[in-house]
Design brief:
Blueprint lengths: L2 H6 L12 H11 L4 H26 L1 E3 L5 E3 H33 L1 H6 L5 H29 L11 H20 L5 H17 L11 H7 L3 H14 L5 H28 L2
Antiparallel strand pairs: 1-2
Helix pairs in contact: 2-6, 3-4, 3-6, 4-6, 4-7, 4-10, 6-7, 6-11, 7-10, 7-11, 10-11
Length: 270
């Protein structure tokens, strides 16, 4: 057992050195050699959906009634949902594929944990870096929404911290799940889950179109909570139910951090 490992045995020091910023800094340095075209593609995808469906198909659909009984344009209805999708996509990309490569092929975490960093430092650092990508996508999309006049209330400014919460939730849970995956074939399951969640989480139409038993399934999905939270903020439809959406993501973050930390410790320290 090395001296560094010996120091970590037992207590908080076994998990945390208080320096997740070193992992984030390493991510920024590595990003310099990345293809920015790939990074920007994650931003343009929801913009294309908004242009084609919100502005194009929206001309044929007209107004849509929200779950609170308020009529809004179709573009204003789907824009906050696509904002949530933008945050999810940015966070998931970095916390799954990038983490999978570092974990199984780059062997970067072994090197990080051979230093004073603990598994919680690594987990939180990677999640924070993924969160920043989700924030980048979502902030750009918020600007597009503002230009098109789709932020219908002053409370839309609160969508930015809400986006951070959503990105944090997906990044932490995404990294936790990825830590258990061994092959590229396993990674295909991520898209298998994300695509139907994107299509059916009341993104393009109200949840009330489903039978009640289907609604219960949809309301258990994390993206639906993000969609409802951002839709309420951008349209100015505030309610106590928003606290449940926030609590859902707080629990999601806690679960992701706990499982990721335990998994990294089991893989490289125990």
């Amino acid at each position: 057992m090395s001296a560094v490992t010996a120091e970590r045995v037992g207590g908080v020091r076994a998990l945390w050195a208080g320096n997740p910023g070193a992992v984030v800094q390493r991510g920024f340095l590595a990003a310099r050699s990345s293809s920015w075209a790939v990074v920007l593609s994650g931003f343009f995808e929801p913009v294309f959906y908004l242009a084609s469906m919100g502005l194009g198909l929206g001309k044929l659909i007209g107004d849509v009634q929200t779950s609170q009984g308020i009529d809004v344009s179709y573009a204003a209805f789907i824009a906050p949902a696509l904002l949530a999708v933008s945050a999810m996509n940015g966070a998931i990309y970095d916390s799954t594929w990038n983490v999978f490569f570092k974990l199984n092929y780059g062997k970067l975490y072994e090197g990080m944990l051979a230093t004073s960093l603990g598994p919680l430092d690594v987990a939180l650092g990677e999640i924070l870096y993924a969160l920043l990508r989700g924030l980048l996508y979502a902030t750009g999309f918020m600007i597009v929404m503002q230009v098109l006049g789709l932020n219908l209330a002053w409370t839309a400014i609160l969508a930015i911290p809400a986006v951070l919460l959503i990105a944090f939730g997906f990044a932490s849970l995404g990294m936790a799940i990825t830590s258990y995956m061994k092959t590229f074939q396993h990674m295909d399951w991520i898209n298998f889950v994300l695509l139907p969640m994107f299509l059916f989480s009341a993104t393009f139409y109200p949840i009330t179109v489903y039978p009640e038993w289907v609604q219960s399934i949809v309301m258990a999905l994390p993206l639906w909570h993000g969609v409802e939270l951002l839709r309420g903020l951008t349209l100015g439809i505030l309610s106590v139910d928003m606290l449940w959406h926030v609590l859902y993501y707080v629990v999601m973050i806690a679960i992701g951090l706990v499982f990721t930390t335990k998994r990294l410790r089991a893989l490289f320290l125990d």
